[in-house]
Amino acid sequence: MRLLLVEDSVPLADELMASLTRQGYAVDWLADGRDAAYQGAVEPYDLIVLDLGLPGRSGLDVLKEWRAQGLSTPVLILTARSGWAERIDGLKAGADDYLTKPFHPEELSLRIQGLLRRARGLVNQPTLQAAGLSLDESRQCVSRGNESIELTSAEFRLLRYFMLHAGQILSKGHLGEHLYDGESERDSNVIEVHVNHLRRKLGRDIIETRRGQGYRFGTSA
Amino acid sequence: MRSIQQRLGIGLAAALLVCGLLLILGARWLVDNALRDYLGSGLQTESENLLVAVVRGANGLQLDEQRLNPAYQRPFSGRYFEIDAGEPRWRSRSLWDHVLERPTHVGLTRHLINGPGDQQLLVYRADYQRWGQKLSIVVAQDYNPLLTSFSRMLRLGAGIGLVALMAILFLQRITVRRALKPLERVRHQIAQLQQGQRSQLDAHVPQELELLVEQINHLLSHTEDNLKRARHGIGNLGHALKTPLAVLISVAERQELKAHPELQNTLRDQLEQIQQRLERELRRARLAGDQLPGVYLDCEAELPSLCTMLKQIHGRELTISYHFAPGLKLPWDREDLLELLGTLLDNACKWADNQVELTVLKKKACYEVSIDDDGPGIAPELRRDILERGARLDEGVTGHGLGLGIARDIVDNCGGALSLENSPMGGLKVVIRLPLRASSQ
């Protein structure tokens, strides 16, 4: 899952980057509204965390522009402005959720999880369920029935993406774009390696290879 | 204060009445004088005619009856004479048995003298010398018929004057009303302003009102700017304080601190306190209250979004329904009201099982907003406590509920009242009554 964090306060952004990366998200960070307006529309983000009080351009303006362009990426507004009137303005501008500062880091990660599932049309449950598997995002482990299986960080990220897109054909390039932030080196072999690891832990059939097209998760179940 | 129109009307009517009365009295005096003068000179001629009619006969002086006006022969004809030549004395036959009072002075008497019947006589006395004899001639004429027709004329004049007065008052009323139309329009616009139907006064007004309207508009935009600036400042302050606070709260949750649970708890508690205090004071500072007319909350535009938003926040199987008359606008600051409704609805959503209902009604004396939920409700004996303490009860639910405290602040600011009742849905019913503005009644 690749997120865009738009926040002008460096210490807060540092904290959030650290905590979100720990939770297995690939995070790009921008501090200026103008940069965000451009990059948010161009890069394939799965979710955008947007502060409203930005230098350059106000967050609400940026959000309105994205929605006018037809960008449907879920946007979570993060702001110090806590009035209901402002929340409604945010909602009208096209925000999907609204979190006021200060907040507990846990609250933010729960909101992000919820938004990502809602965007895929999934019910918001404590664990993510697909193809007979149930993924605990806070503990980063997966279980099938009563059997609990430990995952590495990279495997967790890949599996979460597969489970949120069960039944869809995902190319290596697509996976690379959504699993790594804009600064990492993208090597399709790495994805292949992680897919093999997942197959070894969860069974061969769990991820199907479609030659020339990519991978498909959860068709066997 | 009475209206300008009324004052103008009463003033004009009084002035016209006084003038009319003076005019009538003056006219009466002038015409009376002129008539008496005219009749006086007639009487003088008459006395001279009588003098000529006195001739010297065989037995001394004689009155030549042939030369007399026939009116002197007919009894009570209204024309009389009396000639006193010492001896003999002649009286006109028309006097009959009436004794004519002799004036003491020569010339026209000032007062009218009672004549036969109810006649009022104008009497003229002239003294002559003829043939070495003194002659005192008194002639009199009834003034009553003239006086009667003269009074009739005056009454007619007064009648016409009254009709004219009415007509003038009526025309004046129309003129004044037309002249005051711009004032009336401004008054109407100010009423609209207070009801939140407009935010500025129309600047197309007559010269006399231009400054006033300009000044009001200036004040309005000034107040609005001030409010905006204050809110912006508070927003910035909030931003400046809350972002570092968010960092601190995040830091307090770090793995490294988990080794020192005491330290972590103290940090959490203190940060929580700072956050609550900050939130409450900033919210209070943002309230606009009654200071700005011309603002409103458009129920149709805002309430559905608010409900959608609350549903999003509280997720689960919650039905939030709302009822209000189409086009209903509440004449208070949008942010204040949204804050109020948002806070109360949020509270209701926290406690409700699966239903929350918002109703906004415009009643005769107030706007009534009620929020019902089907949750556990609050026992009647606890309600007063909760209102007085500024709502501690709900603070436990999520840790940062300010609930009824802020709601009460807003309601007080708007001059309204908040009460807690039993909801027919089984839970709590929060009723807010906001007074109608004076001008919208």
TrEMBL record, chain A:
The GO molecular function terms of this record are:
DNA binding
| CDD domains with a match to the protein in the record | REC_OmpR_EcPhoP-like, trans_reg_C
Q: Name the DNA-binding stretches.
A: 125-219
Residues that the record marks as modified (4-aspartylphosphate) are 51
Q: Which SUPFAM superfamilies match?
A: C-terminal effector domain of the bipartite response regulators, CheY-like
Q: Which InterPro entries match?
A: CheY-like_superfamily, OmpR/PhoB-type_DNA-bd, Sig_transdc_resp-reg_C-effctor, Sig_transdc_resp-reg_receiver, WalR-like, WH-like_DNA-bd_sf
Q: Where is the OmpR/PhoB-type domain?
A: 125-219
| Domain annotation Response regulatory: ranges | 2-116
Q: Which Pfam families match?
A: Response_reg (PF00072), Trans_reg_C (PF00486)
Q: Give the top-rank taxon of the lineage listed in the UniProt record for this protein.
A: Bacteria
**What keywords are assigned to this protein?**
DNA-binding, Phosphoprotein
* Name of the protein this chain belongs to: DNA-binding response regulator
Species the sequence originates in: Pseudomonas asuensis
From TrEMBL, chain B:
- Write down the EC number: 2.7.13.3
Protein name, as recorded: histidine kinase
Q: What Gene3D superfamilies does this protein's entry cite?
A: 1.10.287.130, Histidine kinase-like ATPase, C-terminal domain
User: Organism source for this protein?
Assistant: Pseudomonas asuensis
Residue ranges of the TM segments: 12-31, 153-171
User: Main site of residence?
Assistant: membrane
Identify the SMART domains for this entry: HATPase_c (SM00387)
Is Phosphoprotein one of the keywords UniProt gives this record? yes
Entry keyword Kinase: yes
Q: Where is the HAMP domain?
A: 177-228
Pfam families noted in UniProt = HATPase_c
The chain positions of domain Histidine kinase read: 236-438
Catalysed reaction(s) here are: ATP + protein L-histidine = ADP + protein N-phospho-L-histidine
- Taking the record's annotation, the residue ranges forming a coiled coil are 264-291
Q: Which UniProt keywords apply?
A: Coiled coil, Kinase, Membrane, Phosphoprotein, Transferase, Transmembrane, Transmembrane helix, Two-component regulatory system
Locations listed in the record: Membrane
